[in-house]
Amino acid sequence: NSFSKTEDTASDSLEAAKNATNKKEKLADQVMQNPQVLASLQERLDNTSLTPSSYIETFPKAVIRRIDALKKLQVKCAHIEAKFYEEVHDLERKYAALYQPLFDKRREFINGEAEPTDAESEWHSENEDEEKLAGDLKNAVVIDEKAEETNVKGIPDFWFTIFRNVDMLSELVQEYDEPILKHLQDIKVKFSEPGQPMSFSLEFHFGPNDYFSNSVLTKTYKMKSEPDKTDPFSFEGPEIVDCEG
């Protein structure tokens, strides 16, 4: 009858649709497994994606105008920040002068140019392990004070030990640097004078050695603390632009 024929036709149509769907899925799987097809598809997606600038261009003109105003404010902030770092440099120079007498005294003790008084050498450690170690060493070693005064001057290999044990510095030290570092007696930092371009110098003071005749090696770093005119938003503070020495 007509109802049965209609039912058969509907069933055939449904089966045909399923077969067509399966074929499409298989074809899609084969296509997606093809690297060239994937690369082409990715290229199309990249070309159609919006960049920040093109995204902003989709805004109404009134919104773009406000965004431009924010950019101008941000540039002004960058210039204020640059001024802040200039004043920080001035503060570093000021306090370097206050630190210097202490650093001079440190140099004297390290190099055996002076001996600390009892008051200067009095130190109470809050580290129990450190105190225990000091006590163990004191009990285990009998010190001949006269021999010590004769043979040991200052604090041997002080700066060499610093460079070997401070992570930030140890990464810079190569094996061939170690012998000369044992002759290093002092390190000084000097900041540029007021009104001069921002810079600082590192002075490495060495004792007599077989490696070079100069007693002082100097490295000067020139700095810039102002936003780049072509990219003011990248400003993150002073940057080293050149070095000498």
TrEMBL record:
| Region listing for Disordered, in residue ranges | 1-30, 225-245
For this record, the Gene Ontology CC terms, alphabetical, are:
nucleus
Single GO BP term:
nucleosome assembly
The family note in this entry says: Belongs to the nucleosome assembly protein (NAP) family.
Listed name of the protein: NP1L4 protein
Lineage summary: Eukaryota, Metazoa, Chordata, Craniata, Vertebrata
Gene name, per UniProt, is Nap1l4
